[in-house]
Specification:
The protein has about 270 residues and is α/β, with parallel strands linked by helices. It has two domains: about 80 residues, Hypothetical PUA domain-like, domain 1 (Ribosomal Protein L25, Chain P); about 160 residues, SPOUT methyltransferase, trefoil knot domain (Alpha/beta knot), CATH 3.40.1280.10. The C terminus is likely disordered. It has a six-stranded parallel β-sheet, sandwiched between helices. It has six helices and eleven strands.
């Protein structure tokens, strides 16, 4: 069986109101148009033509099977075969990563999507290298769409930029259920446990810049109820630490008994 390729179709949700949501197959021929980079990838790179079956996603929990009907250099017209709505997970990790010119943002953004980040917040730290660009949110979108398509994650993380510093981040997350500060200093800092990760509700992880947190920022986090935990003895790059947090959060959320655990848990083979 040939590979089913995935394409980003932000207007897909508009078709769910026409009776094509859930597990039902659309009885009418509903069409959707791909343009720009998605059309170029379908037509010029993959060279798909009429009759090819593809997968569509909109980053808002909707996925669909579709068939290519017509193509040219500027657009591809597809007929929807069915559209499904995927529920949002119960466990919602928010990664607040301090801005730094040294951060490999492309790598981190793709991994954040693959590992189920609910939101990605970029903030200006006292020790950040460089200033947070005004167009940071828009420039990250393409990388995250690529991560969604790669991992088949139907939910695209929301991206927010906080140019006024950590106080703005703390205020935005004040009503979250969990507030976690991954901390590289080992003295009197407990190792994180599986029971602290992957819990229902919103969990914020705050990662400082390469230059570390300022004392003012640490005092703010302490007074705001953030729990400092260790993820191990190594000092990690910012994007590595952020990816590790999201990976462990995802793993913990998939454990048996958690709301987001797979419905059919794999069983251990019986010993003869």
């Amino acid at each position: 069986m040939s590979e089913i390729h995935t394409f980003y179709a932000p207007d897909l949700a508009a078709h769910t109101a026409a009776g094509t949501s859930g597990d039902q197959t659309a009885e009418t021929c509903t069409h959707i148009v791909l343009e720009g980079q998605e059309c170029k990838h379908l037509v010029s790179v993959l060279r798909l033509g009429p009759g090819a079956e593809v997968r569509l996603m909109d980053g808002m929990g909707h996925v669909a099977r579709a068939r290519v009907e017509q193509t040219d250099k500027k657009k591809a017209i597809l007929s929807l075969m069915d559209v499904q709505a995927v529920p949002r997970p119960s466990s919602l990790p928010v990664m607040a990563l301090a801005f730094s010119k040294a951060v490999r943002r492309g790598f981190f953004l793709e991994k954040a999507v693959e590992l189920g980040a609910h939101e990605v917040w970029l903030w200006q730290g006292d020790h950040s290298q460089g200033k947070l660009p005004a167009d940071a949110r828009d420039s990250w979108q393409a990388k995250m769409i690529a991560g969604c398509k790669q991992s088949s994650n139907p939910w695209l993380p929301n991206v927010r930029a906080f140019s006024k510093g950590l106080a703005e981040v703390v205020d935005a997350a004040r009503d979250f259920e969990q507030h976690i500060l991954p901390w590289e200093m080992q003295h009197d800092v407990p190792m994180v446990t599986v029971n602290e990760l992957g819990q229902p509700g919103r969990t914020i992880y705050i990662i400082g810049p390469e230059g570390g947190f300022s004392q003012r920022e640490l005092d703010l986090l302490s007074s705001s109820g953030y729990r400092a935990v260790s993820f191990g003895q190594r000092i990690l790059r910012c994007e590595t630490a952020a990816t590790l947090c999201l990976g462990l959060h995802w793993w913990a959320s998939q454990q048996e008994g958690r709301p987001d655990a797979p419905r059919e848990q794999a069983q251990e083979p019986k010993q003869q």
